[in-house]
Amino acid sequence: MTVPSVVPVFPAVPAGSASVAESATIHHERLVAAHSANNYHPLSVVIASGDGAWVTDVEGRRSLDFLAGYSALNFGHGHPALRAAAHAQLDRATLTSRAFGNDQLGPFCAELADLIGKQMVLPMNTGAEAVESGLKVARKWGYEVKGVPTDRARIVVAADGFHGRTISVVSFSTDPDARGGFGPFTPGFDVVPYGDAAALRAAITDDTVAVLLEPIQGEAGVVVPPAGYLRAVRDICSERNVLFVADEVQSGLGRTGHVLATRAADTDADVYLLGKALGGGVLPVSAVVADADVLGVLRPGQHGSTFGGNPLACAVGRAVVGLLHEEDLLGRVRALGTAMHARLRRMPGLTAVRGTGLWAGIDVDPAIGTGRELSERLAVAGVLTKDTHGPTLRLSPPLVIDEADLHLALDRLEAELSRG
Ligand SMILES: *Cc1c(COP(=O)(O)O)cnc(C)c1O
């Protein structure tokens, strides 16, 4: 993870090999352009390997990963504990299906429930599946526990949120790119402005079963709601007998310097949706976590997943939970996050800095360029991150990044911004 500062991030390509080296990136990009669905617009870097916060591309150039798989790589590339857990489980059993038990599922659910402080875990795979599962659980809870008339359940969501890409999830997206061309949409959702407790209160009816939102909106540009908002959401949900479902797929598991961003705001949701970092950057692992009075509404045959709860996923998930219990991890994230935000707030060329912990959304002065243009310039300078929308870049380095590497990346960002 530590790299001597004398090692150039982009070592000079040996004489005579420049054209060969250049063709490796182009070769891979041509294959992707020809044969991969064109649903992404990646930066021009093709990664071959990673170690901690560093990645090496097919040209042999080393860069700092300042995106960390949108928080799926909270523990960096190839964390020794996660790699060891995966290797050990690979040699034992990797998939059983839920037709049978496996000896990793029970411990994983118990250890994750204990970390989150709830009673039960529903293991799934991707974040979108955790969201879909949470929506199903909330509806079923609404009918069976709250007593909402059949097929009348409604769920209140926040504008500009991001919860995945499935049909039901894009049905309540306010992003025209996410929705356009994908109708007809799943009914039953009411969208309110994020951060506005009065609007949320007004949107709740007797048929409302849940409020679903991100405690900090990641994809929207790391948008932190006004102080007191999440506590108000909690109070409204309690008053109206509505489930507070917190999508912590991106904000959870250490990103903010806390296990849960909701708890960091001094409140508690009824249902937590986890993903991304839960798989340790090794494989997709997601979960719905709640007490038995909520998750207990699911009975055999009513929900499932071939891969959810597989022993390999559970073994890696257990190792992730273990890392989150480690003494200094979260405190270190808070300290590094404070240092990062202090530096960002002093940097030229930014019109806004948002976020907390090792997580920032920065808006680039249009005089300097778009978010995309800055991310391209940073990639050339050896710092990989990505724009979200228009002027906004998301910074989310691995939580295990060395302090010196964090400052190296920020030095490079500052240099690009100063250049104008
Ligand atoms: C990434 C994300 C999802 C979707 O996760 P996938 O694994 O890509 O399906 C859901 N919610 C939030 C908040 C996310 O950031």
From TrEMBL:
Query: Which gene carries the instructions for this protein?
Result: rocD
Record carries keyword S-adenosyl-L-methionine = no
Fetch the Pfam families from UniProt. Answer: Aminotran_3
Source domain of life? Bacteria
UniProt pathway: Amino-acid biosynthesis; L-proline biosynthesis; L-glutamate 5-semialdehyde from L-ornithine: step 1/1
What cofactor does this protein call for? pyridoxal 5'-phosphate
Q: Which organism is it from?
A: Pseudonocardia ailaonensis
Which CDD domains does the entry mention? OAT_like
From the Swiss-Prot or TrEMBL record, give the protein name: ornithine aminotransferase
